[in-house]
Amino acid sequence: MSVNMDPENQRPGAALPDAPEASSSSVASATGPGPDQGDTRHGDRGTSIWAEAFGRLRRSPMAIAGGVIILLFILVAIFAPLLAPYGGTETPGMREVTPTSIPGIGTAGYPLGLDNYGGDVMSKLIWGARASLLVGVISTVIGLVGGLILGALAGGFGGWVDTIIMRIVDILLSVPNLLMAVSIAAIAGQTPFAVMIAIGAAQIPVFARLLRSSMLSQRGSDYVLAAQTLGLGRGKITMSHLLPNSLGPVIVQATLALATAVIDAAALSFLGLGGGNPNTAEWGRMLTSAQSFLASAPQLAFLPGICIAITALGFTLVGESLREALDPKSRKK
Predict the structure, then answer these.
(1) Do the beta carbons of residue 159 and residue 212 sit within 8 Å?
(2) Which of 93, 147, 182, 322 is 20–30 Å from 52 (CA)?
């Protein structure tokens, strides 16, 4: 039996006669669209975790509602001199208040009524927003800065430094925050500045432990190992790499701490540790003054209580939304 073989077809590398020639359009379709063909993936490669979290926040109804509340609260606090009809300690209706009668909501010239001192309730609520904003922000900054210092030292250096700092933090965490704030305020004095220090100092252990835990979880990451391979020192790695990449949970906690600070400030003022006179325009102090008039003028307690609750709700909504936006499990959905 003989087999007829074409020697030309036996050359190595010879193309098969029925193989289709690859076109440029086929190559383009296989490799994906070019940059001028609407490549939506090109813009996603450089998206940071914070940009992605901000995008999720803009689509979250809970974050939007909380942001609107916080924005209104800040605007009222900033423009209090323009919005309030009277000063925080003025008593324009003193002659209209009697031991048995306090003008309530809807009184002519005083939309939310008068308090037992003859002060305009609406004006005091507006000025109280400024006082709560100052106490909340400054106390949270104090707690955040102190917690960052202790947490960075513990998480960055480890060893005996970590052991000593964390044992101190454990002792502080064993005391409830409000009880610690009350103790510090009672020792430091009954002034607004003492209240800020008391609330801020009570928050330091929380921030310190949170940052330290976040830094320990980042210590074995690839970028840290690469920095060590390049010969960077521990301090350089901590400040340039570990700390910036560990701040996400701390920022979320700072947002939630603002809500706690507003409530704690009102609680300390309610206990008489906020300083000032009884006529001070501060939500917690207004609650204290309203205790004796709950039966005859319940609005004196309800109105500042509602302001405290709504403000704390706004910060809580934004904090929880930010936590979900930065959560890796949530981002995968």
Answers:
(1) no
(2) 147
Tokens at residue 92, please? 């324009």
Tokens of 37: 């063909």
| Other beta carbons within 10 Å of 56 | 18
Separation of alpha carbons 280 and 293, rounded Å: 17
Residues in the chain: 333
- DSSP at 292: G
Q: 30-34: list long-range contacts, CB under 8 Å, 24+ apart.
A: none
3-class secondary structure for 210-262?
A: HHHHHHHHHCCCHHHHHHHHCCCCHHHHHHHHHHHHCCHHHHHHHHHHHHHHH
Separation CA 93–CA 307 (nearest Å): 23
pTM of the complete model: 0.73
Walk along the chain (333 residues) in steps of 10 and give the mean pLDDT of each run. 44 42 40 42 52 78 91 93 87 80 82 86 91 88 91 82 89 85 82 86 90 79 73 69 76 87 84 72 84 83 91 90 72 52
**Amino acid identity for residue 91 in this structure:** T
What CA–CA distance (Å, rounded) separates 156 from 77? 39
* pLDDT (0 to 100) of residue 180: 85
For residues 156 and 235, the answer to whether their CB atoms sit within 8 Å is yes
Matching residue, tokens 């996400």: 248
- What is the rounded CA–CA span in Å between residue 132 and residue 14? 84
- Tokens 């914070």, residue? 50
Q: Which residues are CB-neighbours of 120 under 8 A, at least 6 positions away? A: 84, 85, 86, 90, 92, 93, 110, 112, 114
CA dist., res. 212 & res. 217, Å (int) = 9
288: CB partners within 8 A, 6+ apart:
269, 270, 272, 278
Distance between CA atoms of 312 and 310, rounded to whole angstroms? 6
Q: Return the H-helix or E-strand segment holding 113.
A: none
Residue with the two structure tokens 């609650």: 287
Contact 200, 140 (CB under 8 A): yes
Cβ atoms < 10 Å from Cβ of 148: 18
